[in-house]
Amino acid sequence: MGSPVRNKNNGAFTIKCGLTNSGDSSSPRLVTNAVVRSKGDKATYIGHEFDRCRDFSSLHYRLPFEKGYLVDWDAQKAVWDGIFSEEVLRVNTTESSLLITEPYFNLPNLQEVYDQFVFEEYEFASYHRCSPAALIPYGNLYGSSSSAPPECMLVVDSGFSFTHVVPIMGSSIVWSAVKRLDIGGKLLTNQLKELVSFRQWNMMDETYIMSHVKETCCYVSTSYRRDMEICRENPRKNDIVQEYILPDFSANRQGHIRKAEDVGETDQILYMNNERFSVPETMFYPSDIGLQQLGLPGAIAYSISLLPNDVQGMFWANIGLIGGTTKIPGFRDRLLHELRSLAPIDVEVIIHTAADAMTEAYKSALAFARSGDFSSYVVTRAEYQESGSNASRRRFKDWKSTDNEKCPDPYPRKGKAPMQESDDERISIPTRGGRARNRTGPSGQRRR
Amino acid sequence: MPPKRGRPRRQVQVEAAAARAHIDPELIAKRTKRHLDELERSNYTESSTLFASADDEDQDRGPAARGRARQTISDKREHGRKKKSTMNIRTAVLYRKNLATLIDESGIAALPGPTYLTAAVPPPNEPPRLICSVCGYWGKYKCKKCAMPYCDLNCEAVHDETRCERRVL
Ligand SMILES: [Zn+2]
Ligand SMILES: [Zn+2]
């Protein structure tokens, strides 16, 4: 396919990026999406430069994203400039095509700024922008690449800023049933910081360290009451408590869980007792911290209840997990257990997981970008120069403000299927050839 | 199950408890909201509810907090390309807006269909579990002064000494 395609899964905290023509490698380069100041190193790191950081104490983060949306374009440009440069991807953007993700329900005014950066600043030859879940039908989350993805799937995307439940029908997102839970990895890390700072060491300044503690020690309990009793009995010695030895950056030693052979008496130990499971528990009981939202199982059941009756069973049987926060041990088991009790008795509940939930959307993006009909989904620089952001509003099929208008598409394309009205919910039917492997999809026509 | 209209049961319960303790439920709701905002910060270093310290507003904003940024970070590295950015790009880089402003300006509030503003998960039907604010175990009791739950005499003592706000705001 001639020109290389750059894939960028532009997460609020971690960017997963790579090139389609980089051989068979499907592992993205991970770049911290932040400008980070390290007091110990007396240095400021922009994006990929953070790999050079040695002293992770008291880091100050400047994140381009606020609550999941891109608001600090100065910081974002600094990080992107680095990624496109010789130091990371070494691409000539003017000859490349870009596939970039955006948050669910991205604001229309922000979508225009995405367009401006892609074409005015980096001058890409063409690009496609969509949400991470929209890429999942192209990947292998629901089975091998030889079989067509299921007609109905429910993607749970839990990342840094928030968690979304995203139903997809015939490869199109059903936006009226997409639901957001305002809990992600960032909130959980902050909650953990708060708990241990009150109970043991003041770690309020140590986001990086506490994020590592969270990743190392936390799990989702399958029996919250039982685990709570175990931890109450003897808080320093029980089957759950772990001793996390805090890092010593001056001695170049990372934090880790104490093993029997570790004896260092000067070590600073953080006891991780009920903190191990009470923090991820917030995903299941947001009201534990006063957040007035259903937990994730309830959110999934609610989303499915908004879908057409006759296909609800298919959604229950095709739940897929993506995003770093779903990687917490026990997450799937607990979710399955609770969904089982919420689902109608006669439906099957199946949860699909990826080898690495954090990079699954990236891998799906790679498959999409490599597929034959990717080129029919892009907006070209010439089209942007001619009609500005209207070009992407016309072409991209993900959420856009015009989807809300009850009047027909002001720019009807040839072959566009009519909107369907059902129970007052609008479901858009795929308008084009769609997926490379979609042989059973409702839209018979294929481009090529 | 459609989203519940009106006050969720939790709210009613908290209000009842607050009424017993003569605490304005609105103040409790405000405290909860402030705490949730803190948990969203990029550099959450000072907790107003935990250490009753003064609330310094988010320092994440950097120099671009209000109006035009005095200096930008994106021109700190050259990366070998010298290019004059368009007006659109310079505006985006120089004038930072927070999410609330961007939402206002986006016009999504006037859209009839689903948007960011309508997508939040609805509140739960069942009342919240009460968790001891000191140790994390079940919190059977509530502080008479500030309505925070605690589990036993030990935790009550710790709460009184270090954490009780004595007043809600
Ligand atoms: Zn207690
Ligand atoms: Zn109190």
UniProtKB/TrEMBL annotation, chain A:
A GO cellular-component term linked to this record: nucleus
InterPro entries in the cross-refs: Actin, ATPase_NBD
Annotated region (Disordered), positions in chain: 390-448
Principal localisation: cytoplasm
Keywords (A to Z) from UniProt: Cytoplasm
Basic and acidic residues bias: start-end ranges: 398-412
SMART domains, per database record: ACTIN (SM00268)
Name of a matching Pfam family: Actin
Subcellular location: Cytoplasm
Keyword Cytoplasm in record: yes
Family from the record: Belongs to the actin family. ARP6 subfamily.
Role, per record: Component of the SWR1 complex which mediates the ATP-dependent exchange of histone H2A for the H2A variant HZT1 leading to transcriptional regulation of selected genes by chromatin remodeling. Involved in chromosome stability.
Protein name: Actin-like protein ARP6
Automatic annotation (TrEMBL), chain B:
GO biological process: chromatin remodeling
Designated name of the protein: HIT-type domain-containing protein
Domain HIT-type per the UniProt entry, residue ranges: 132-164
Domain of life: Eukaryota
InterPro entries, A to Z: Vps71/ZNHIT1, Znf_HIT
Region (Disordered): 39-85
Species the sequence originates in: Neolentinus lepideus HHB14362 ss-1
Alphabetized PROSITE patterns for the sequence: ZF_HIT
One GO MF term: zinc ion binding
